[in-house]
Design a protein that fits this description.
Layout (H helix, E strand, L loop, with lengths): L1 E7 L10 E8 L2 E8 L10 E7 L2 H4 L8 H15 L3 E5 L9 H11 L4 H4 L12 H9 L4 E5 L3 H9 L3 E6 L8
Parallel strand pairs: 4-5, 4-6, 6-7
Antiparallel strand pairs: 1-2, 2-3, 3-5
Amino acid sequence: MINEVTKGSLFPVEEGAELYNFKFNKGTEYVQAYVLNANSFLDNTTVPYRLNSACITSELFGDLRCDCKWQLDEAIKLVKKQGFGIITYHANHEGKGHGLSAKLSTFKSNGEVNAKYKNVGKNEEDVRDFSTAVEILKYFGVTNVELIGNNYSKKNYLTAHGIIIKHQTPLIYNLES
């Protein structure tokens, strides 16, 4: 359940761009997600949407073992190109919900090739909670999305909870490009 919504703008200001902070109460835990809402949405409009899980190793420190920063950057470009859309940013999703310590341990044990975290289709490894994403979409009255990304766990969760995926735009990273 959403407890609090705070809205602000980014600097430099992009026309129609707003940043939202949603605070959720999940028992004693608070979860925050950030939304970039470039315009108002009309009923039944298919809204470009990215459910972005935090990845401090690539987004902040540039680690190339995963493509998370690249996917976030591409999603931002797509939303800007469309002129509207939503990107939710889930800070508590680091390491597929296991946290940074578990992720770093996996990096250490797997070395340079990090197959465990690259293979996003393995549901048994993924303990992230996507319920906050659904609540945010419903807050904006969005039920139809163009899902930006490849993750089947995210797609299946959204679909099972009433979000209609009208189109999916895959993000395929080529390390050599």
